[in-house]
Amino acid sequence: MSRAELLSPEGLRIDGRRPAELRKITSTTCVLSQADGSAYLEHGNTKVLAAVYGPREARHRALVLHDRAILNVELNVAPFSTGERRRRSKNDKRLLEMASFVKQTFEPVVIATLYPRSQIDIYLQVIQHDGGTLQACINATTMALIDAGIAMTDYVCACTAGWVEREAAIDLNYIEESSDTSEVTIAMLPKSSKITLTQMESRLHVDKLEEVFRLAGEGCKQMYEVMDKTIRDRAEDLARKMAV
Amino acid sequence: MLRQKAFMKKTKSGKVLKVVKEHYLRDDIWCSVETCKVCEHTEPVLSAVPSINKAFRLPHYIIPDTNIFINQIDVMEHPLITNVIVLQTVLEEVKHLSLPIYQRVRDMIANKEKRFYVFSNEHHRGTFIEKLKDESPNDRNDRAIRVATKWYANHIKDLNPRVSVVMMTDDAGNRDKATADGLQAISVKWYIEALDNTEILDMMSSAKDLDDGQKTIYDEHLSSAHISNGIKSGKYLQGKLGISSHNYLEGSIYTKINGEEGTILIVGRSNLNRAVDGDIIAVELLPKSEWRTTPTGVVVDEEEEQAEEESLKAEQEAAAATAAKEDTIMAEPEAEKATAAVEAHKLDTPQPCGKVVGIIRRNWRQYCGFIDRKSVHTPAGSSAPVNVLFYAMESKIPKIKIRTRQAHSLLGKRIIVAIDSWPRTSRYPIGHFIRALGEAGDKSTETEVLLLEHDVPFHEFSKQVLSFLPVEGENWVVQPEHFAGREDFRSLNVCSIDPPGCTDIDDALHVVPLANGNYQVGVHIADVTHFVKPGNVMDQEAASRGTTVYLVDKRIDMLPSLLGTNLCSLRSNVERLAFSCIWELNKDAEIVNVRFTKSVIASKASLTYEEAQNRIDDASMQDDVTSGIRILNMLAKKLKQRRLDMGALTLASPEVRFSLERDTQDPVDVEMKELKETNALVEEFMLLANISVARKIYEKFPDSAMLRCHPQPPSANFEKLEKAVARFGIEIDHSTSKTLSDSLDSAVLPEEPYFNKLLRIMTTRCMMQALYFCSGAQIEQEFRHYGLATDIYTHFTSPIRRYSDVMVHRQLHAAIDSSLSYGDELTDKEKMNDLCGNLNHRNRMAQQAARSSVELFTHLFFKNKTEEEEGYVIRILKNAFIVLVPKYGIEGIVYASAKVSKADSGESATAQPQPILVYNPETDCLQSTETLAEGETPKTQVQLFQKVMVQISIDDDLKGGGEGGMRQKLKMELLKPWIEGISVHGIANKDDPEAHAVTSTKKRDEAPVPAQDKKRAGKRTKA
């Protein structure tokens, strides 16, 4: 009882959403002119900026692969991203781990064989943190890669879901995340419904897993629609401008 | 669906943080009114034709504010109050202010008949408001309530039939603003008065209407900031107040004084300063000169009552004057007592005394009790509101002043009352009536009272709970699929041994001699967890009940009886699921190996202890079951011996069993519970199983295993007992359980065969309570079970009647079956800790309820009966001593002061009971008052362990002030030794009314007895 009530008996979550509702999502692409592709994504109060450089010449010769491009992901969380200011070192294990998650997620999706002996750099900056950083990073990366014109087999859409008190809920915010909720992040290729990433760090009863998975999958599909719309709007906008 | 963002800033204590939260406003929050066509709700809560009240033209829904719930929760719970809209704003405030009340509001919301609807106004687009600049949070919330009311008023104004909303608040300012907005607003008082129902009127809390201008009786409590500073600096001490069960004006807290654990006594009304038993209080130590020595006195507060009665009578005319008079009356004797005690025993180390300076958290609950007949002065049949005094059944609770219109119909009944407040001007706390339970003295009413008093949930199992029972019901049988993962033990000669009449059999045993000369011994426990799955409603209900409560005439089950007495119960000749613990024991009963498995068994016989004993003794019985029992018995003796050698304690308690009349369930006879060899047989194997299981689950769940420990008692507990037995040349060494057990064994007085048992009973009372705990919460050294002398212990063997065993079953199952999936209920340290807390509480309460039930039946048994029995003095108080009568296992107080009759005290209210025996702290005994020369023993003394004769009867009416047996109490009067003024004549004289009359007058006349008279008197009884 002492813990905050995350899901009221009326079926509203702490911020007024119902369990199967995403937060408000806004996104734009092409926000940085220097980068080859960039995207800015707001997932409620979680805000992420993604920048893609490349494909370009690999910086370290030793790493070069003769038949395809290598992916390099760097993730940075701004010190001002949370209520309490905290500077993270570049070698923070959590950040490195998260960067490697992003990298692993995209390796099978980016058609790297089209860009041999090159490198694609993905820089991610978390500007504000309110839960669901990983999903936001993945989604922003997808859009930035598309913006950069890098060939991919499909979108990658990520979404979290968890077991909040007595129901599965989607897109957990920081308060929900931090009160010991089991949380699963999955990344999905929406066309084939293939899953390229599943990440869970807490215990979740196996009986509940299916429901949580189903909901997360639905969230991914919703994410896809939002992202696809942004991309298409952007493309239409460009096409219009070129026609003039 | 529209989503909008609003930002809320929040700072947390310690570090100032800015927390930004999203706040979505919605369009899909419906009004939940039955006839509303606009909203798309599917299950409307609010009925089309809501409450009707004379104060309003239209039927209406009620929208109460926060304070209505906080102050008038009992009124809101009344069945007359329905169709209430609970705003989210209000609900959140209630939750913040008081969790128990929040829980009660939630219960009402869940109750369909109450038609309470939660309107999430904070997330509704039309009713959400931002806090204005310079607006306090309280004002903002009040405004939010008004906005929501307005929204409702507009929303439903066109409905047919016509309805309205009424805002209910006791805040006049808020009401005015609402009226200005064109809303209907009313205070609870007006609303209830317009309902014309006396019962609900009585339930109204009177927190606000204090009598002004009265003399303050108590010191002011300090502010909470002041207290927390004081506690930090060590000026004040914090603790949970425990009131002495013999004297409600004396309490104590157990806390650290200058780094040392100790008890602080708080004596007297003004020092207690309005604290009630169980409150968390802040205490200031009194100067050393005011410290006192134990023991406690018993308050025979007749003169005080008298004064209070008068004060009630004269309340209107001269309240202040009476109060003043009372004060002097009260102050004098108390002060006298205190100084007398200090002077007389300056040498003895006094106990620290303190004074309550503030209350950190109240522990008020609802109290069962009765109205004091003497405090009702209106003519019979009057329904004018009167102030009356209420006595709680629990003697630790002070009298409570309540205002009621039904005083006369409530007389002689048991009622429930809640405390509202305790202002400085009132001698007693002020409360209000909640409901009546029934006639006092009636067995079912009294049983309900004792269940309520001990917080035992005794309602029927709800439909929801029962829905989790197997659908086959009674016809459930073991199916082939149940054998998956289970061993088939159906061919084994399993049998169970239980007390007679036992229907919930949760353990059974078997033994098989092995080829290598060892024995395979199995303990089979009912597999309750097969039926009770974690987290479902049945499981939650069982977890909250915690344990089955055994009363003399009934049983309050933890699990529905279909499971407890049928499907789980290991009855003979039916196949049942079990959880088995199988050992290989060698000839010396040492464990060679142990394993655990789920199984299916078919018990061959369910025996009573007596039947099993007869089988062992009857040499002609040579069947498999009987020879098995013999082997088990042989092994059990060896196990027991080894356990005793390790230092396990054999303690005793004066337990009795009633034989009840079949139809009326009235007690007809009392007998001591007898222990047979076979009791020990079962016990030994259960202990063995529990210990083996404890090790296993601790291995698997080092952080969250549910274990049971029994802490070593602090040596302070033994001080008195040691002193008392020193007289007999006996020493008690309690440094380890082994030495204690040895000294108990050697403490035998040849001339007094009962002495050893008595000593064991008293040692039991020096012990600490055994407790459940979560293994991650304590260090391994503290796992020890002192009484059983084992380093680890748990409860595994009674899952039908204890929830702890259910948890242990689950943990053990997870430990033996690695493929099993389980949730965090088995691993979460915090949840486990909370559960242990609840189980410990329930257990304690169950024990007390059982004890009270025995007490109740003892009273029924002694009704209209007077018995003379032998007893032993087991405790000395300052002006009384407590006698235990082994035959009935009862205890009673014998006062060591001559009684002052009511007539006397009425005339001169200063009359004090004459002490005939005074307490001598050096010898811890009561002795006659004559002055003694050095080394001389007093003429008459009462000391611990002394054998006395007492006359037992029921004092039908100790405090009720009239017939009716309001608080029945066992009356014990001393027969032998004869002490003038205290002792009474036996039944022999009682038959003769004249002789009786003579004694009773004599008692009063001879109150202050000269010493030589006493000698004569002593001789008279001997002759």
Automatic annotation (TrEMBL), chain A:
Residues 21-150, 154-218 form the Exoribonuclease phosphorolytic domain. The keyword Transport does not apply. GO terms for molecular function: RNA binding. The keyword Ligase does not apply. One of its GO terms (biological process) is nuclear mRNA surveillance of mRNA 3'-end processing. It is found in: Cytoplasm; Nucleus, Nucleolus. CDD domains: RNase_PH_RRP41. Signal peptide: none annotated. GO terms for cellular component: chromatin; cytoplasmic exosome (RNase complex); nuclear exosome (RNase complex); nucleolus; ribosome. Keywords: Cytoplasm, Exosome, Ribonucleoprotein, Ribosomal protein. Component of the RNA exosome complex. Specifically part of the catalytically inactive RNA exosome core complex (Exo-9) which may associate with the catalytic subunits RRP6 and DIS3 in cytoplasmic- and nuclear-specific RNA exosome complex forms. Exo-9 is formed by a hexameric base ring of RNase PH domain-containing subunits and a cap ring consisting of CSL4, RRP4 and RRP40. Belongs to the RNase PH family. PANTHER family: EXOSOME COMPLEX COMPONENT (PTHR11953), EXOSOME COMPLEX COMPONENT RRP41 (PTHR11953:SF0). This is Ribosomal RNA-processing protein 41. It comes from Linnemannia elongata AG-77.
UniProtKB/TrEMBL annotation, chain B:
This is Ribosomal RNA-processing protein 44. Coiled coil: none annotated. It holds the Pfam family PIN_4. Its cofactor is Mg(2+). It is found in: Cytoplasm; Nucleus, Nucleolus. One of its GO terms (cellular component) is nucleolus. The keyword Ribonucleoprotein does not apply. Residues 60-176 form the PIN domain. SMART domains: PINc, RNB. Residues 486-818 form the RNB domain. Belongs to the RNR ribonuclease family. GO terms for biological process: CUT catabolic process; nuclear mRNA surveillance of mRNA 3'-end processing; rRNA catabolic process; rRNA processing. Keywords: Cytoplasm, Endonuclease, Exonuclease, Exosome, Hydrolase, Nuclease, Nucleus, RNA-binding, rRNA processing. PANTHER family: EXOSOME COMPLEX EXONUCLEASE RRP44 (PTHR23355:SF35), RIBONUCLEASE (PTHR23355). One of its GO terms (molecular function) is RNA binding. It comes from Linnemannia gamsii. Residues 1002-1015 have a biased composition (Basic and acidic residues). PROSITE patterns: RIBONUCLEASE_II (PS01175). Residues 987-1023 are annotated as: Disordered.
